[in-house]
Here is the input.
Amino acid sequence: MKSFSFGPICKAKINVKSAGKSIVNTSTFTADNFPYNILMKSLNAAQKRQEDIMMEKTGLPLHEQINLLKDYLRINGYKSGSIKFYSPCWNGLMSYAASENLNTYTQKLGIRFLTEHFRTDLAKSNNKTSKKYIRGIKLLDSFILNGKMSEFSKRVSPAPKSFLNIAEEYTSYLQSLGQTRKSIKSKRSRIKQLFDFFEHESIHSITEVNKGCILAFMKHLTMKYSSVARSNILYTTKDFLLYCESKELVTVKLSALIVAAKFVCPQLT
Here is the structure.
């Protein structure tokens, strides 16, 4: 059987019907403009960019690599508590690397840290601490050497990057009140609507929020949600604004607008 190849030049016949007649038009595709080659060039360019980013990360000092990982996790929805949970592992890795005169992460370093220094059996580790350390190293390994963490499910970020800190502070406040995990999860989901709206309106800090922003948000809710959903979102929004006022993050009593929402925006009732 003869092997098939596009060769340096391909000719494609395209039948075009015009006024009831079939016209044969011959279009020439060179190796540079044939769609497959164009696609491959695009994929190769993307892969090259990814490799460049990975090369930059693999050459950084270990503490910078870990800081980049923390930023990546934060952006991808990991709470500060979750990141803090793995910090002992990463701190231990840095201490071990320093004792071995190593300055950057490699897979060999990660394995040696777990098996020789931490005495972890990678094949059968039932200890909770061991599992935490193994996962902590896997997170770092995948991020540094693969540029992503496809084996770990991406979590829904609680807020756009600009509002991550205030979202986490509000969550900690709710936890300090002893609220249930289910209640906190619902409130985080609702308040995310407020943060997403601010981000869409190019508002990147809670200190930039004024009365007009809140009224615009209320109007936005009337076009997107049912009356029950609006009521729940506004209830949580008011609670969040009261928290911000107690911390003097805003200088105007914005929460009062929601109390008077039925007078400002009758359709909210």
Summary: Residues 1-34, 260-269 have pLDDT under 50 and may be disordered. The first strand starts at residue 9 and ends at 18.
